[in-house]
Amino acid sequence: NTVIIWHYGYIYTAYSHLAKGSISVNEGEIVRRNQQFAKVGNSGRSPYPHLHFQVQFSPELGAPTMPSEILHYISQESSGFYYHTHGVPNKNQRIKSMEAELALFDAASFPIGGIWKFDISDGRKQWIETWEADIDFAGNRYLYCQENKAKINYFVSNKVLLLLDYKGKPETGLESFFMALPRLPFTSTKVKWTENMPAEIMLKGIRRFIFNILEPFHSLAVLNAELEFMENVSQSFTISTQIKLGGPLSKKDNDDITAITVFQRYSGLKSLKLLKENKTIFELNARNIHVENNH
Hints:
The chain is mainly beta. Helix content is about 10%, strand content about 45%.
């Protein structure tokens, strides 16, 4: 009562202790994603129903296990639900697969050819930024700001939006977005998750200069973020981010920032607000235009 699936090369996955008579595939048959091919059981030396799963290098029964991780899952903890892009669950940890939320994908996937215009203020000055989503010859997606030439490379699937890196001058709207939401799982579950980010985006002036000079030799600053879904109302999605800078170059609590990001289905990014000590230090608001060019 075991099924072994060949994926490619020398990668196989084994599923054992399946319910007797439940296997619905034959040797050599192609198995597709989301296809049910058996039911969990307790066949063999198994006192209770469970699934023995492993990744292995060969198709033989009992072949050695190779290290592997689970993609896009949610764990249930005492403080709530936590999203994991990938990882190995802890013993006795309760987990479930993350189900994709189409409405959030429609709101935050930044489709190629999309154009978004924003009014931005940092308390000292106001300006406008126009972002365009495009793709290069290698298939890499990016957001490009027409006014200041800043750029974010990003990856998107039906499960997650991942902002990979930021290139451009500091203190732009695009950089603030990169800092506020480095990763967004497309799920309807109210989950929390954590991120480690490049510390330089929180440093200004002499602190940024010192960091860039000494970072190859000493870690003078670390930037961590704790994110949480706050609301899902009328296909509007709100995410809260607690951003904390640590290390010798930090100013303790004076460097902590709260970001509130709002997406609207079909319209995209609606607003972004950064707060320090409950005072707004940055605000971005969409101009209610969204254009997609088919090219």
